[in-house]
Hints:
By secondary structure, the chain is of the alpha/beta class. It is built from seven helices and nine strands. Helix content is 32%, strand content 18%. The protein is elongated and about 70 Å long. The relative contact order is 0.15.
Amino acid sequence: xxxxxxxxxxxxxxxxxxxxxxxxxxxxxxxxxxxxxxxxxxxxxxxxxxxxxxxxxxxxxxxxxxxxxxxxxxxxxxxxxxxxxxxxxxxxxxxxxxxxxxxxxxxxxxxxxxxxxxxxxxxxxxxxxxxxxxxxxxxxxxxxxxxxxxxxxxxxxxxxxxxxxxxxxxxxxxxxxxxxxxxxxxxxxxxxxxxxxxxxxxxxxxxxxxxxxxxxxxxxxx
Length: 222
């Protein structure tokens, strides 16, 4: 998989690329690169935004700036690449979408800033508009890290153990429910002990208990 992140702040991603599962994925041949939108802007002095038509506070990322960046990176051939605008009003990001994106060969993530994107960027360049939650961030960089982290940990070998990403919160293995509670040593902590079923050695009963705990968590959170 190849992931390009178009951003005004490419330096933000140095820390992210050092995370263990990301490094594992890179060592397996996957690629992540932060692309500086200012590097190819057709405007003077690195300008990338302008005031909104119709008035209002804030600035809007210009369509010609994003066009120049995409052309410089890919040429005129859009190919099968998923181009995703990270915006608060987009489709809500969830485990199902992460699994879908993990099956793609190429992703391009567009990080907005200020008041967001000129709508023509979304209409003419993007295959998807995605939100990581119903709240507003200062920009799309943190959202890009969330999407990359969630997608990359689903790539075979990224977590070091092939079963690590199978039975997780919201996965098919748990019927889309939150993950069950976990316990480790000490067995007795100030009188609070580990559920006896987990010490039974009966894997069938442990599995049944964990599924019921996940279902109960789903019911409680609804």
